[in-house]
From TrEMBL:
Molecular function, one GO term: palmitoyl-(protein) hydrolase activity
GO biological process, one term: receptor-mediated endocytosis
Group of enzyme by EC: hydrolase
Protein name: Palmitoyl-protein thioesterase 1
Species, as recorded: Spodoptera litura (Asian cotton leafworm)
Catalytic activity, reaction form: S-hexadecanoyl-L-cysteinyl-[protein] + H2O = L-cysteinyl-[protein] + hexadecanoate + H(+)
Protein family (similarity comment): Belongs to the palmitoyl-protein thioesterase family.
Pfam families xrefs: Palm_thioest
């Protein structure tokens, strides 16, 4: 009997196709060039033989993909991605998802808004995501975008104006701790997916259906401010110095995203790594992300 079980297990191992993977790149980045996510895709394909990797391109070309990271309303990006994922036959048995930087909160929005109409999303891994938003834009994107200073100024002075919300992606996750109410009232994206305005039960259920939500924080991040947002921490409301950890935020205390249950079930995983934004070694990635979460 025991031999039979082992034999069946071995057969399953050799016949099973690895779980597909979806990637969503960050601001100032694109789906496919070799020195960024194209390189990660190749790396995954090498380390997990036979795996299918869909590195999301938002738009009809790489140039559009790059521009859309700044200028396409995230609600529309999320709808677009939900459609892409629903119609990708390689994902029909379920998939794992990895978000890079702002791609983190966008993929989380995909899970929350479309999880119930997509094949099972097993693990969502976010690398340097801005889950509670940002207050500041110290370094504006991996490639220094010429309009960076303009964007920074717009965010400082008019992030919550409706035309800025509609035209500038980063404004939709701008979180001003000195004016929480304006953030909650006016952010057209992040305040909604964080259930700050009202609690959408579907969001909670869909997040809970993940096997794991893995949040990776870069301890010496100089791009994301504050870096604790990568673990759902943020400035305590009313000032911009003291940071509260996830378990002391309104989202956690009022259980707006169902984190208490996820924590109890071991589904919420917080990982930190020394280094700047999205800087990690191949070995770290294999040991910390691939082996525990992508070989299912
Ligand atoms: C792709 O091109 C079509 C046709 O030009 C256009 O309608 C659509 O908006 C484009 N998609 C995106 C996401 O930009
Ligand atoms: C809650 O989210 C689901 C999934 O996106 C959506 O269909 C529904 O309309 C939302 N409910 C409310 C009250 O906004
Ligand atoms: C937020 O919305 C509430 C209810 O609509 C309103 O009373 C309040 O003045 C708004 N606050 C800000 C800062 O916009
Ligand atoms: C990175 O941050 C950690 C935690 O704050 C700190 O202990 C470490 O010294 C920093 N490393 C570098 C290279 O700055
Ligand atoms: C929150 O978590 C930290 C460790 O991450 C712990 O020191 C602190 O006591 C916790 N606070 C609450 C209110 O549970």
């Amino acid at each position: 009997m025991k031999t039979l079980i082992i034999l069946l297990f071995v057969i399953k191992l050799i016949s099973a196709k690895p779980t597909s993977i979806v990637l969503w790149h960050g601001m100032g980045d694109t789906c496919c060039v070799s020195f960024s996510l194209g390189g990660i895709k190749l790396f995954l394909e090498k380390k997990i033989p036979g795996v299918y990797v869909n590195s999301l391109r938002i738009g009809n070309s790489t140039v559009e993909d790059f521009e859309n990271g700044y200028f396409m309303n995230p609600n529309k990006q999320v709808d677009y991605v939900c459609e892409q994922l629903a119609s990708d036959p390689e994902l029909k048995d379920g998939f794992n998802a990895i978000g890079f930087s702002q791609g983190s909160q966008f993929l989380r929005a995909v899970v929350q808004r479309c999880g119930h109409i997509l094949p099972p999303i097993k693990n969502l891994i976010t690398l340097g995501g801005q889950h509670q938003g940002v207050y500041g834009l110290p370094h504006c994107g991996a490639l220094m975008y010429p309009t960076c200073d303009y964007i920074r100024q717009l965010l400082n002075y008019a992030a919550y104006d409706s035309w800025v919300q509609d035209t500038l992606v980063q404004a939709t996750y701008w979180h001003d701790p000195l004016d929480e109410e304006a953030y909650i009232n006016k952010s057209i994206f992040l305040a909604d997916i964080n259930n700050e305005i009202r609690v959408n039960k579907t969001y909670i259920e869909n997040l809970n259906n993940l096997e794991h939500l893995v949040l990776v924080k870069f301890d010496n991040d100089t791009i994301v401010q504050p870096r604790e947002t990568e673990w759902f921490g943020f400035y305590e409301p009313g000032q911009a110095k003291k940071i509260v950890p996830l378990n002391e935020t309104r989202i956690y205390l009022e259980d707006r995203l169902g984190f208490k249950k996820m924590q109890k079930e071991g589904k919420l995983v917080l990982i930190s790594i020394e280094g700047d934004h999205l800087r990690f070694s191949d070995t770290w990635f294999v040991e910390t992300i691939i082996k525990p979460y992508l070989l299912n």
